[in-house]
Each structure stands twice: as C-alpha cells, then as structure tokens.
Write a structure and sequence with these properties.
The protein is mainly α. It has 5 helices and 2 strands; from the N terminus they run αββαααα. Strands 1-2 form a two-stranded antiparallel sheet. The longest helix is centred in the first third of the chain and has 20 residues. The mean pLDDT is about 75.
Length: about 170
C-alpha cells in the first residue's frame, strides 16, 4: 500500500499570469509581485538620488536590477519558509549581538617598552666606548663634591642593568 503525501498541493504556486485573455509570457508568483513592485520603486528613487535622469535606458536598467533582486529574494521563500519568516530572520540577524574583534587589554602590553632616543651601538663598539669613557674621566671630582664621574647617556632609562655572566657549561645540559 502506498501512502501519498500532500506535497503536490504545496508544489502548486499561487501564480498570476496576467489579465484575462492577455496573459504574460512569464510566470510570477504573487509573492514576487508583492516584493518586485516596491523594489522597482526603490531602485527608481535611488537612481534619481544618484543623479540619473528618467529615460528609457535608466528605466530598463531599473527593471533589470529589480528582476535580479526579486529573484534573489524569492529563491529564499517557499511554502515552508514564508516571506514573513524570512523578513523576521533577516531582522534578527542584523540586530543580533556580535563578537568583539578588538582586544581590550590582556596579559601583554606595549606600554612598558622602553624606547631610546639614540640608536644602539653594536657590542664591539659599546665595549670600546665604555672603556674610553671610564679611562678619560678618572680623577675628575669625587662623590662628595657633587660632580659626576662621567656623562650619563641613560636618559630616562636610569642606570643600565648588570649583565649576566655565562657559565662555561655546554648548552642543553
């Protein structure tokens, strides 16, 4: 025994073929007419706002654009998903809260990165300069008379940190 469903009833579209004895050469559902006419008026209004004058070609392009937009919208509409449900879904999608893509802080920040005004020297030149500065300023003033022993090139950085000494043990042990 075969059980028949009622799908055939819903496959029949509510189609308006045109006025009696003068039917259109195309099939358009009532929903397509309901959507297409306002879209055509909106497209014409946008053309006027854009400065396109009213004429044959501008109206023909408006008609083509209306057909494309209407076909796109009516492809999403069926008897199982009516226009009201699609419109409500679209409105909810636009109004839904979104995930924030910008960071609001975290564990790492660039606010504490120190920046020097002068360019750093290579290691071998730093050693030579430090040796020259210590050699040339020996004996000029003392700690008690308020004079510095040598120029400070540290700026807002403060005093440099002491270097770590490396052990002679091979790496990886």
């Amino acid at each position: 025994m075969r059980i028949r469903t009622d799908d055939e009833v819903y496959r029949v579209d509510a189609v308006w073929l045109g006025p009696p004895k003068a039917t259109f050469p195309w099939r358009a559902r009532y929903v397509a007419w309901l959507i297409g006419i306002p879209i055509f008026l909106v497209v014409l209004t946008v053309q006027r706002w854009a400065g396109i004058s009213f004429g044959f070609f501008s109206t023909a392009w408006a008609f083509v654009i209306t057909i494309v937009i209407t076909r796109f919208i009516t492809a999403k509409i069926s008897h199982e998903r009516p226009l009201g449900a699609v419109a409500a879904m679209w409105a909810r999608e636009l109004g839904a809260p979104r995930e924030r893509t910008t960071g609001t802080g975290g564990a790492v920040s660039a606010s504490r990165v120190r920046v020097r005004a002068e360019r750093p020297l290579p290691k071998h030149k730093r050693r030579k300069r430090r040796a020259r500065q210590q050699h040339s300023y020996k004996g000029k003033g003392s700690a008690g008379d308020g004079l510095l022993k040598g120029p400070t090139h540290h700026g807002a950085q403060g005093t440099p940190r002491a270097r770590r000494s490396r052990s002679n043990a091979p790496a990886g042990r």
